[in-house]
Amino acid sequence: MTYGNAAFAALADPTRRRVLERLSAGPRAVGEIAEGLPVSRPAVSQHLKVLKDAGLVSDRQDGARRIYAIDPRGLGAMRGWLDQFWDTALVAFKAEIERAAKQEKEQQP
Question: First-to-last CA distance in the chain?
């Protein structure tokens, strides 16, 4: 899963996670994203490039600036990969509930 590995690797950096969190409120220009972050605008641009290369954000031209937004396809791929673990956990939880219910029923007079 090379694509997913790139996405998870991109999100290993706390600044990139903060950038992505800011984009969760909607599309933004680099200057808006950089406001209040402890890194420069050029550094934010580099972080956005990593996120874009990982498929987590997209961009579009708006006059002289670029507007960045979360790419739902990239997050969807990550979620799909993570869901396999959730599905396994749910199956195990269901089996445990059924086992406990059967055991309780067997103990009743």
Answer: 53
**Mean pLDDT calculated for residue range 60-82:** 93
67, exposed or middle or buried, with CB in 10 Å at 0-12, 13-18, 19+? Answer: middle
Q: Please work out, in degrees rounded to the nearest 5, the angle formed at the alpha carbon of residue 73 by the alpha carbons of 59 and 57.
A: 25
CA distance 18 to 100: 43
What average pLDDT is seen over the chain? Answer: 91
Burial class (CB in 10 A: 0-12, 13-18, 19+), 99: exposed
Provide φ and ψ at 13, rounded to 5°. -85, 125
14: which 2 tokens? Answer: 């706390």
The predicted model scores a pTM of: 0.77
Q: What residue type is assigned to position 26 of the chain?
A: G
pLDDT at 3 over 80: no
Nearest CA to 68 out of 86, 90, 83, 53 is that of 53
* DSSP letter (8 states) at residue 13: S
